[in-house]
Structures are given as structure tokens and as C-alpha cells.
Amino acid sequence: MSEINKRLLKNRNLSLQGGGEERVKKHHAQGKLTARERITLLLDENSFHEIGALVEHRSNSFGLDQQRFAGDGVITGFGKIHGRLMYVYAQDFTVLGGSLSETHAAKICRIMDLALKNGAPIIGLNDSGGARIQEGVVSLSGYSEIFFRNTRASGVVPQLSLIMGPCAGGAVYSPALTDFVFMVEDTSYMFVTGPNVVKTVTHEEVSSEDLGGAKTHAERSGVNHFVAGNDVECLKKARALLTYLPQNAYENAPKPSVFEFSAEKLDRIENILPSNNGLPYDCRRVLDCLVDDGSFFEVQEDYAKNIVIGFARLEGRTVGIIANQPAELAGVLDINASRKGARFVRFCDSFNIPLLIVEDVPGFLPGTDQEWNGIITHGAKLLYAFAEATVPRITVITRKAYGGAYCVMNSKSLGADLSFAWPTAEIAVMGAKGAAEIIFRKEIVDASDLELKWREKEAEYADTFANPYRAAERGIVDDVIFPRETREKLLHGFSMLEKKAENLPLKKHGNIPL
Prior knowledge:
Elements: H1 3-16, H2 21-29, H3 35-42, E1 49-51, E2 74-81, E3 84-91, H4 102-118, E4 122-126, H5 137-153, E5 159-163, E6 166-168, H6 173-177, E7 180-184, E8 189-191, H7 195-202, H8 208-212, H9 214-221, E9 226-228, H10 231-242, H11 265-268, H12 283-288, E10 297-299, E11 307-314, E12 317-324, H13 335-350, E13 355-361, H14 368-372, H15 375-388, E14 393-402, H16 403-408, E15 418-421, E16 426-428, H17 432-439, H18 441-445, H19 450-465, H20 469-473, E17 479-480, H21 486-496
Parallel strand pairs: 3-4, 4-5, 5-7, 6-8, 7-9, 12-13, 13-14, 14-15, 14-16, 15-17
Antiparallel strand pairs: 1-2, 2-3, 10-11, 11-12
Helix pairs in contact: 4-5, 13-15, 17-19
């Protein structure tokens, strides 16, 4: 082998070593995979092609001239997942703590630019101590370059962020701008300011895990969409999610040619709702009876549990699902549920994914906490998202559909393409008891038997309005159907809407109530 070739081989080998054997051992001891190991598990076998493997930083300040590593702490390139093109970057914590330098950022930006030009998803594996402080403002400028591209790529190609280690300070805003965030229990965390700063400023004692761990962001903030027990599980979940998503905004999601649906679910769905309309039930049982077997892939399962969102398939075709959850807070809409639903609706609309709305909502959550924290504005986000969406939208009302919450949950007047109601549906301004108290107050007060009169008037209102037939008479719902008919109606409905074309008024962009 010639000296020229030997030099190339040596440089390639150096780029594969990361921060060196000792740092890799320490990394493994923390239960974490290396950046290259993660890429290997994420992508199809032997499909990864690296770009920028020999890049090094340019700084000589504070001893950095003695710490040069091929790749500069981030591995970038492209490969395939389930045979489809993906662009990937993986920060390498064994190299200077995965810190972001000017060249580190430039490598990430290069990958993002290629992804936009070629219309393929961007997957970031984040494991970094933050900006490389020895470089000062140029490293911060690198973050801004990434944020700019995250924003430009939003709604053009899917963006996934897998947080597989620390992600702190300014670094958190790139994942926040992407479509889906994955976190690993016990080894990953996100926060703008760490526990030490929190203690100094607010005198609160808090651990990194409690402040910004996977469960904290899954249950309390909603920043995290998926929790994984370890690196391997996290990578598998990302691969699974991508099977539901298109490559870009100009394509449709892949459609598997094989699917299964158990016919016995048509019988099961008839008996899910309790005979007493005040009792809860799990909406997932309804969803399971509508979609292809085992196809429901829930998103943000641990956050705002009074609404359920996720992807599923109907005869192989991806749909996005938004369902009120009567098993949590009776399925009311509140601030967090509205934000959760709105974000998901806008994602599906960006990427041509039809929407199925399964509605059982008694209203918005009352109280000073909700009002003072802006339920009006946050509820309007969900309303705005549905009204703006141009993808096919079908609503199925299973039980309660009351007041403003009925309007917000993709009512026909808000632009739903089709609206169906089960015989158990109650479509009204409010529940029968509250309505009777308002409408018949004077008449009841004058009655000799108050309790009997209350029951009579409540029943009168329920018979008149707390059913789907007044809405059906006015064409506000398209049909009243038996539960077992729902899947067939959805299949024919979405098939009919497959070529739907709807254009919004010409404008730069709307002003969603943020």
C-alpha cells in the first residue's frame, strides 16, 4: 500500500475511534451506546454513508489546538430506514462532551440542507454538553444556524429528535422546533437552565432527572412525545414511527399491502359504551375496533390524558387520530389537551395525513386556573388547527358533544368533510340537567312537587336535544350509524376524499393564537 493510501486509511480509522477507548468505556458504563452504534441500530444494515468524517474544528483558544478529533464530535450522513432515504446526525459525547462548535454546527446544517433539497426526513441524535464555550459566540451562532434550518424545514420534511444524553441551554430549542421528541429514562435530560442555576436563582433543590428527565417532560411539560427505557428501545420506536410518515409534504405516507382486521371487533364495538351515559370508558377500546389490528401508535401517551392522539392504519393507509378520553376528566378539553391536539392536527395537515376525530366531549374544563392561564387562547389553537386543515377530516360522535367543545372538535361547520353520530350521541348546547335549570327555572319553582318536575323537564330537554336526530334533520351530521358500521363508513369516506383539493385564501401566513 502506498504512503498516500496509508494516510487515508489512518485518518479514516481515527474518525471511527471517537474520543478514544477510555472515553468509550466510560460511556458504555453509563448504559449508553456510542454515536456510531446508535446509527448502526437506527438505519438499515450497511446503508449508512458518512459525510464530513474528517472535519476538524479551527479554534486554537484555551488549549483546543491540542484537542483535535476527526469529525469534531458529530457524525453526519445519510442512509435508509425500511428502504427509505433518511438524513442523520449523531452527536458523540466521547469527543469533547459532544459540545457544539462552529464546524460541528456546519456539519449538521449541511445535512439539513441536503434533506430539504432531496425531500427526506431529518433525524437528530442529541447527546451534548452544549455550546463549546472555548469558541465563544461562534458556537452560539452555530445554534442559530441550526434553528433557522429547523424552522425552514418545518412542514416540509419530518424532523425527529432523539435525546440520548444531556441537552441543555440553547441546545434545547432545536428539538423543540422539530416534530417529535424521544427521550431515554435515566440517561437523557433537557432544560434551559440546570439544577445549579435553579438553586442559585430560586433556591429550589432539584435533580437533573426531576427538572428535565424523560418522565418529567412526558408527563408535565409535554415537550417529550415518547419515553424509552434504553437506547435500543428509543431507536426502535423512531423506526416504527417513520413507517406512518411520508418522506415530505409533497408525498403520501407509505401504504403496506398487507393488513389484518379481526371481524369479531365489529361485535365488540357495540358493547363498549356504558348504558349509563355518565360513566367513563376507555376510548382506546373504540379506536382498536376501528383500525387495522395492532396499528394504533399513540403519541404523547403520558401527557394531557383527557385527549388521545396517534397514528393508525385503515386498510394500510395512515390516518391521524384525535379522540376525547372519557376515562380521564370525563374527556373535557383543557389547556394542555387543546395544545396537544392542535400541534398534532397541524403536523398531520402538513404531511397529507387524513384526520379521524372520535368525539365524546362534555365541554371545557371550568375553573379559575384554566381561565387565568388562558383556556380561551389555548382552546382557540385547536379550533384554528382544525379550521385551517385541508386534509380529509371525518368526525364520529360517540356520545357527548356539548357546547363550544362540540364546535372545536372538528364539527361539520368547522370544515369536517363527513360527520357521523352513533345513536348514543348527545349533541346539544349543554347537558340536559343544566339546560333544564335555565329554560324551565320559573315553571319549576312554581310547581308543587319540585323534584318530580325537575326530572320531567330534564327528560323533556334530553328527548328533544340530547340525541343525534335534531342534528341529522338539519344536516349538521351526515348520518346516524350503528357502531359496527363505523369502520366501513370510514373506509368509504376516506376513499371518496382521497383526491380532495382545497386551497386556503392567498396570504403570507395566518396568525394562530399562540
